[in-house]
Each structure stands twice: as structure tokens, then as C-alpha cells.
């Protein structure tokens, strides 16, 4: 609750201006907290690799994937009901994504569906989204659950996790190659190394993210879905289905992915932050 002096300031600002107290009182007003999840800034490692090069490589690899799927008659046509469903959900999520990464405003977003038994989906740098029919058919996902998956994958692109992993790889391999010779960049990495990684030295379809990246994508994706009008509580049922489909998988400490139980706990912990966004 605001103190009486603050309320008087808001009602009669001129009375306080003469005393020179207005700046002090305004400074004392509580800062407005950000609505939604808190995940911090993007990793500094991502700045080692040019974003333009990563996105260019992603476009090439995505086009190759679609060409291969088309050749196998596995690429869903525009009129496919599931593809239309995915694109409708994407139209709600993408506008919410722009605030997370200024580059996203210029991305040429795409959404495609590929016939495959894989329980998988992804969003490559530059907004290149693909779902496999396996994740929709085997898990029988609701629209809310699809939005959670899509939000998660879009979050990886917005938070530039692929670019971060490539930057870390450049540090590891670059240090071995250039030894103690100082070169460009804060980590002393030859820019030719990062350029070559970005231009195709990394397979963006198979690049593995860390547990921290996955947890971050869960939270950002949950917020994106909530802001787009999808129930973030679907994250719980989604990962219950995922866990059931992956019985016998490796324990958490042997995997780069958090366990289903951990993901559910993190989602439930952050629901109070995003449910108000959904209810709006």
C-alpha cells in the first residue's frame, strides 16, 4: 500500500515540487516487476558466433530436410488438417515471441509437418519450425499441449541456444588449435573458427542442448503459450505423456535433458507467474 505522503504527491504534485522532493519520492516508489518467468540474459557464448551465419545455415539445413521429406512423400501438403492446426497455433505464439529477441521480428517463420514415427519437434534459428506426426499421433496432444511443445521449441531459437552451443564449441576447439595466441573476441577465438561453425560446421538438427537450456526453454515456452491464450497447466500433462512414452530412459544425471518429474516440478513452481497472463 502506498504511504499517505506518496498519495498526496500523486494528487498534488506542485505542492511537493517546490520542496525539491519529487525526484526523491518517485525514486522510492516500488519498481514494477516483470510479468512472467525470469530466466536472465542470453549467454555470452552466443555472441562468439554471428547470428546471421547461424540463421543462414539453419535455412539451408531446413530446406534440405524439407526436400528430403518431399522426395519421400512425407511432407504434409498445405491442406493437411494437422498442418493447418499447427500453423493456427503458431499464428498465436509468434507475436508473443518478438519481445524475447529483436531479431525475431525479421525472421521468415515457417511451420511444416513431416510424416515420421519420431516423438519430436524443433524450431531452428530463424524461426524454422517442424513437427513430426509421431508426437501428435502417439501422444494425442491437445491444442494446449501442442502450444507448450511449440513454445518450448521456439524458446530455444529465441534464447539462441544453438548459437550458444556453437560458441562453446568454438572455445573448446579454438583453444586447442590456436594455443596461447590472442585473437579476436573476448575468449581469444579466431573468428574464422566461429564463422566455419556457423556456416555448416554444426548440424543444427542434432545439436544437443544442456539441461539448463532445456529448463529455460520449458519456462519461456510456457510463458509464450500462456500469452498466446493456451493453458500453461498443459505442460504438466504434456510431460506426464512424455514420461510414459519414454519409460526405461536414462536417469537424469546421465542425460542432457531434465527428468520428467523435474520438468513438471519446475512448471508447477512457475505456474503462478504465467496463469494470470493466460487468464487475461
Structure in words:
With 280 residues, the protein is mainly alpha-helical. It is built from twelve helices and three strands. The protein has helices at 4-11, 13-17, 22-28, 51-71, 81-97, 133-139, 143-158, 161-178, 191-201, 211-227, 234-245, 260-279; strands spanning 110-114, 121-124, 128-132. Helix 5 crosses helix 7 (143-158). It starts with a helix and ends with a helix.
Apparent shape: globular
**Total strand segments:** 3
The major β-sheet equals: 3 strands, mixed
Number of helix segments? Answer: 12
CA distance, first residue to last residue: 24 Å
Radius of gyration over alpha carbons?
A: 23 Å
Order of helices and strands: HHHHHEEEHHHHHHH
Sequence stretches where pLDDT stays below 50 over 5 or more residues: 9-31, 174-191, 193-201
Strand order of the largest sheet: 1-3-2
| Structural class by secondary-structure content | mainly alpha
Strand content: 5-15%
Which secondary structure elements does this structure contain, and how are they paired or packed?
Layout: H1 4-11, H2 13-17, H3 22-28, H4 51-71, H5 81-97, E1 110-114, E2 121-124, E3 128-132, H6 133-139, H7 143-158, H8 161-178, H9 191-201, H10 211-227, H11 234-245, H12 260-279
Parallel strand pairs: 1-3
Antiparallel strand pairs: 2-3
Give a quick precis of the structure:
This protein is mostly helical and 280 residues long. The chain has helices at residues 4-11, 13-17, 22-28, 51-71, 81-97, 133-139, 143-158, 161-178, 191-201, 211-227, 234-245, 260-279, and strands at residues 110-114, 121-124, 128-132.
